[in-house]
Amino acid sequence: MSVKTMMVAVTFDTDDVSAQGMATALSGLDAVRRALRFQTLVCDGQPGTIEDWLAFDRIVGRPTPKYLQEFPDYGEYIELPKGWVDQSWHNDACPSFFHPAKRAVLFLDYADPKKRELTGNCRYGAYAADEDGGRIDGGWEVEGDDLHQVLGQLEYHARQPSYE
Fold first, then answer.
1. Dihedral angle of Cα 90, 145, 163, 67, to the nearest 10 degrees
2. Which phi and psi angles does 30 have, rounded to 5°?
3. For the chain, which ranges sit under pLDDT 70?
4. Nearest to residue 148, comparing CAs of 129, 113, 123, 119?
5. Contacts of residue 4, Cβ cutoff 8 Å, sequence gap at least 6
6. Among residues 59, 82, 94, 130, which one has the fewest Cβ atoms lying within 10 Å of its Cβ?
7. Residues contacting 84, CB < 8 A, separation 6+
8. Would the pTM of this model clear 0.85, i.e. be above it?
C-alpha cells in the first residue's frame, strides 16, 4: 500500500477572517467539515485525481456525490452554487443538476470532447424546467463552453416572467 501526502487549499464560508476566527474554524474535524469548501487538492505535489478526491471524501466522511456514482469516469469534482440538486442518471449523456427555485436544469458534459456523446457539443447546457425538473417544450435553452457564461444566461432567463 502506498501512502500519499494530500494537501487541500480551502476557503471558508465565513466573513470572520481574523486569526481567532480561523483558529475557531479549525478547532476540530467537525468544524472543518462544516466550514470548508474544497478548492484544490494536491497529492504528492501533483494535481489531485478524481480518485484522490474520493479518497479524501472517505477520510472526512463526505458521501460520494451522485454524479460520480452515475458517471464514475467523469474525472473532475463539481462544485455549483447553492440550490442545485444532483439529478444525474447513468442513462443520460452526462451529469445534470436541477434548481427548483430557478426551474432550470444544467448539464455538465465531459471536459474531454472525445468522451461527449455528440461530437461538437458544447460542454455546458441548460434549459427551462417544470417543477419536477422535466424539460418545458418551447422553453429557453442555453449552451456554451464557459460555465460562468451559461450560468449567467440561465440567471437572466430564470428572472423573466413565467415561460410556461
1. 20
2. -60, -40
3. 1-50, 53, 162-164
4. 123
5. 43, 44, 52, 55
6. 82
7. 97, 98, 99, 106
8. no
